[in-house]
Write a structure and sequence with these properties.
Helix content: 55-70%
Strand order of the largest sheet: 1-4
Distance between the termini: 23 Å
Radius of gyration: 20 Å
Largest sheet: 2 strands, antiparallel
Number of domains: 1
Order of helices and strands: HHHHHHHHHHHHHHEEEE
Shape: globular
Structural class: mainly alpha
Number of helices: 14
Strand content: 5-15%
């Protein structure tokens, strides 16, 4: 993909980050009235509700019958929809919302490490440096905390590992539109978590809290997930996650303003270190001669890049759209990300 083609998926990831970042202080405000497992279920049922009108069209029925795609989607549902939110909300109940927001940057570390180890994503020295900075900032943030907060950080860290697996699986799922993936994740994980929560926790104490949880789910999980998936399929899990890592800073800002939490010097230092890591990664470039084998798949794309030459009458070449399409075998060189088209290995590059 040409560099100019990166702008739209970057914007998608930034909007996804803004919506998700707002969820941390919003959930903190209502956790006293609803248990973490119940809230996790409501958030994902809200996500399913938000994408339902857009889930009945697009994708490829043939690819959705592929066992590999079903397994990948099941993994994304289990780790990203069922386990991740519960672990996060348990950690949030033990810690300051601002600190939890910053710890969420550990998701970037988990995504990059998992993507490199298991999903053939290229990670060079600059990327490893960025990962190290984000990880160091998370450790600095946890060190001066009391024992309960350290335990909260552990739960948040486990949630980030779950979402790292989710991100890597989501970036390579084929045959489903982003709305369809979000609907599956929301309905299955939301229903299971809500059932467990109602069985082991106190019931929701008020209808307004129930409604607010669903609204948070619609925007901060449903719309956010759809936007993130569209960006991840074009940028790769690691790069899209680094852009999405702006979400914690939005959560920190809202925690200080909306919740009235005091700004701590350690949070400012950690935030600055994380910001430097993001800048290092976002300025990385990767280009070499590579081969594309013939392939048929489904994802959001545009026709002014180096990969999608099929023709649509009266369709602007710059407009992103999603449908099943076939690629011919091609060899070329250009700056690229580890997206659906570029998952080749780099054994000699570290």
């Amino acid at each position: 993909m040409k560099s100019s083609g990166k702008t739209v998926p970057i914007v998608w990831c930034l909007l996804a980050a803004a919506l998700f970042g707002a969820s941390t202080p919003a959930c903190k405000a209502i956790l006293g009235d609803v248990g973490p497992v119940t809230l996790a279920g409501l958030l994902y049922l809200g996500a399913a509700l938000g994408v339902l009108p857009y889930s009945f069209r697009g994708g490829s029925a043939e690819l959705r019958r592929d066992r590999r795609q079903v397994v990948r989607l099941a993994g994304a549902v289990i780790f990203g929809g069922a386990l991740g939110p519960v672990l996060l909300l348990i950690g949030l109940s033990m810690s300051r919302a601002a600190s939890v927001s910053l710890w969420l940057n550990l998701e970037t570390v988990a995504t990059a490490a998992i993507g490199y180890a298991f999903f053939r994503e290229h990670v060079d020295r600059r990327t490893w440096l960025a990962i190290a900075l984000v990880l160091a900032a998370g450790i600095i943030l946890a060190m001066p905390s009391e024992a309960g907060t350290v335990l909260g950080a552990l739960f948040v860290g486990l949630a980030c590992v779950c979402w790292g697996l989710d991100n890597s699986l989501t970036a390579i799922i084929d045959g489903y539109t982003p709305a369809q993936m979000t609907l599956a994740k929301g309905l299955i994980a939301g229903t299971v978590n809500l059932a467990i929560g109602l069985a082991v926790e106190e019931s929701v104490r008020s209808w307004p809290v129930l409604g607010l949880a669903l609204i948070i789910g619609i925007f901060s999980y449903g719309l956010s997930i759809v936007l993130y998936i569209r960006g991840a399929q074009l940028l790769g899990a690691t790069r899209s996650q680094m852009i999405f890592a702006t979400a914690p800073f939005i959560g920190v800002s809202l925690s200080w303003t909306a919740l009235g939490e005091s700004a701590q010097p350690v949070q400012m230092v950690a935030g600055l270190i994380m910001a430097v890591g993001l800048v290092i990664l976002l300025t990385e470039r990767h280009e070499h001669v590579h081969m594309h084998e013939a392939d048929t798949h489904v994802h959001s794309h545009r026709h002014d890049d180096d990969h999608h030459a099929h023709y649509h009458p009266r369709h602007p070449v710059w407009l992103h759209h999603t449908h099943a399409h076939t690629h011919q075998r091609l060899e070329h060189s250009h700056d690229h990300e580890p997206d659906l088209h570029h998952r080749h290995e780099h054994r000699r590059q570290v």
